[in-house]
Amino acid sequence: MNAIVPTPQLAVLRRQTDPRLEWLCAQIARNRFLPVPPPELHFIGDGDFRAIGAEFLRNFVRLGGLRPDHKVLEIGCGVGRMALPLTQYLDSSYDGIDIVLDGIRWCASTITPAYPEFRFHHLDIANGLYNPDGRIEGETATLPFKAGSYDFVILTSVVTHLRTADTERYAAEIARVLKPGGRCFLSLFLADTTARAGIAKGTARPPFRDGAGVELLADPEHPNAAVAYDEQFLLGRFAAHGLHACRAVMRGHWSGQREAENFQDLLVLEKGTAS
């Protein structure tokens, strides 16, 4: 389940896309009435805030199988770039958590009053890049939600800033809070043979350094800045918690070795019914 999605399959995916979803995503991308956080809160990356959110909504539905009646948890919700498009799609509820308090405050004061089923929670987990003074170590963190509460969990560019022990802990917690048959959608850097070739040639962005370990770091002095994982290792760690890839990885162009629609790799995991 870890081969690149070939161009003919991409064409099939596009043909199968619900035109209503395409209309909705187009409306969201250009809806100037959807709020945008102030510039000082843009700690989540560059690009058009609304357009990127709309594109990920398309991916959640088209690739991940998200439905309007799904209960959603987003880990690393930032300043609501994914939450805001979801307000226009979900009929159920959404919980977002993040380690950056200012982002949670903005979401709670801007989104929740208009959409009460969208709730935001601060979790003070330490992270060398985003929350160096956090009180909770990532490898011991527990998500404040009951087991089997969610149909769909989202992590966009979260594992890209986690070391192995923290990633392992999140894998266990995601498996715990997902319902049997529930899915987890991730964007991340997966180092397979092709990606490692790009890293070796210096075409990868970020410029990861390859080595003998399962983590590849872009900046060893600031390890949380950007982390890629050996693909087989990471899939194996999630599988150990009952989370298995349910479709081919949608490859990104970050390594400079592929043509792709997206920058990072997109991975969809499903919790087995026996977990």
Automatic annotation (TrEMBL):
Signal peptide: none
UniProt-recorded Gene Ontology molecular function terms: methyltransferase activity
Keyword Methyltransferase on entry: yes
Keyword Transferase: yes
Keywords, comma-separated and alphabetical: Methyltransferase, S-adenosyl-L-methionine, Transferase
SUPFAM superfamilies: S-adenosyl-L-methionine-dependent methyltransferases
InterPro entries in alphabetical order: Methyltransf_11, SAM-dependent_MTases_sf
Methyltransferase type domain ranges (all copies): 73-185
A biological-process GO annotation: methylation
Domain of life: Bacteria
Protein name, per record: Class I SAM-dependent methyltransferase
